[in-house]
Known about the structure:
35% of the residues lie in helices and 21% in strands.
Amino acid sequence: MKTIDVCLTPDLLHLHTDSLENSIVVVADVFRATSCMVTAFAHGVNSITPVATIEECSQLQSRGYLAAAERNAQKVEGFDLDNSPFSYMDERLIGANIAMTTTNGTYAITRSRNAVKVLVGSFLNLEAVVRFLQGERYDVLILCAGWKGRVNLEDTLFAGALIERLKDEYMIPEDSGLMAWRLYAQAKNDLPAYLAPSSHVRRLHRLSIHKDIIYCLQHDLYDVIPVLRGSALVSMEV
């Protein structure tokens, strides 16, 4: 039977290197990188090139890419876009090629390149990811972007939500998956309230970023899945 596992932070990814080449990786950075990416493709962006560093993003900007750079939940000076999903609803971005670096999400994606496929997941495209994985024969590893190497609650809850919808088709071999699933079972009836005391929600509130939180916790808004092709993400509709 296929398995579904959870890596709670990229700093633990070395424990999964043996299985990575036989797995589909779903990267989740709910607040807010992967939610931005899903939103961007749903609104017509052509591609997003995720890079780990500000320097790489700046180099792509000099080559004509629109550039999005975020560190510590704030836009980096000199770049075109920030890390709010609402910034990617602009019709002027239709057909655009974007370079993006974020504190956690793009780093997690670049660490996953050896996988069979790398998908971008969020609550916004949860059901689309589920439908795609139901037709695949590979194991699944959900990689939570976390926060600077630490585990965070929102990405773990996304992992639990994905497991809940796939539990009849995938075996859950490790406690990280079981933990994520059980946490989501506790939280799913009111995710905003459950996450209210979490570190990243408090961080966003200190920066007066409120509406992004509620938006990113909505389920199944979009039928798009960003998938890594070479060095760039493109949209795969399901």
